[in-house]
Amino acid sequence: MLHEIIVPELAESTVEATVASWLKKDGEAVSKGDVIIELDTDKVSLEIVSPSNGTIKEVKKSVGDVVKVGEILGTIDDSESGSAPNKESEIEDVEVKNEDESSGQIKEKEKSVNITPVAKKIAEKENINLENIIGTGPNGKITKEDLLEIKKDPVKSESDINISNDNVPERKDEKL
């Protein structure tokens, strides 16, 4: 059975969004709840999750396309014939990812950074070093807003981020 991936209701006064990225490709296996698409509006960034297990069957909107609430972004095929061959491709994807992880320290550092997918894309595009950034999101997650703030004022942000205890005066307890 085919399931449509539809642009959900956005913010109260927002009626359109831009496709920021497809995290899953055409023909790739997905599980219910997997983040498959990122949408950006002028107010928020949204992650669209898979409505079912299956295979991305058709991608109807490309990165950069402007979409409206209710538009179909793509379809997912949950039939057994559609998802069976993709178990092999899923295994291949895992093997490729493991090879990538062992190929360098940079990949390991990126993996240890707690960051939203949208923020990660911005950081890669703008070549922002994430090592010294303390995120303001849940559990210290780096958000899009954190990166936009750094981009707006990199000097201020660097000094705010690199807080150390080197210049803090030592406390001297006096006996009364």
Write the topology of this structure.
Elements (H helix, E strand, L loop, with lengths): L1 E5 L9 E7 L6 E2 L4 E6 L4 E5 L4 E6 L6 E3 L3 E6 L2 H4 L2 H17 L2 H8 L4 H10 L17 H9 L1 H8 L15
Antiparallel strand pairs: 1-8, 2-4, 2-7, 3-6, 4-5, 6-8
Q: In this structure, how is the largest beta sheet organized?
A: 4 strands, antiparallel
Count of beta strands: 8
CATH topology (fold) name of the largest domain = OB fold (Dihydrolipoamide Acetyltransferase, E2P)
Mean pLDDT, to the nearest integer, reads 73
**Rg, alpha carbons:** 21 Å
User: What portion of residues belong to β-strands?
Assistant: 15-25%
Distance between the termini: 80 Å
Tally of helical runs: 6
The CATH class of the largest domain is identified as Mainly Beta
Q: How many separate structural domains?
A: 2
Topology pattern, helix = H, strand = E = EEEEEEEEHHHHHH
CATH architecture of the largest domain: Beta Barrel
Strand order in the sheet with the most strands:
1-8-6-3
Could you name the ranges where pLDDT drops below 50 across 5 or more consecutive residues?
81-111, 156-164
Derived structural class: alpha+beta
Please bin the fraction of helical residues.
Answer: 25-40%
- Which of globular, elongated, flat, extended, rod-shaped describes the shape? elongated
Give an overview of the whole structure:
- By secondary structure, the protein is an alpha+beta fold.
- It has 2 domains: 2-102, Beta Barrel (OB fold (Dihydrolipoamide Acetyltransferase, E2P)), CATH 2.40.50.100; 105-161, Dihydrolipoamide Transferase (Irregular).
- The protein has 6 helices and 8 strands, in the order ββββββββαααααα.
- It has helices spanning 80-83, 86-102, 105-112, 117-126, 144-152, 154-161, and strands at 2-6, 16-22, 29-30, 35-40, 45-49, 54-59, 66-68, 72-77.
- It has a 4-stranded antiparallel sheet.
- α4 packs parallel to α5 (144-152) and α5 (144-152) packs across α6 (154-161).
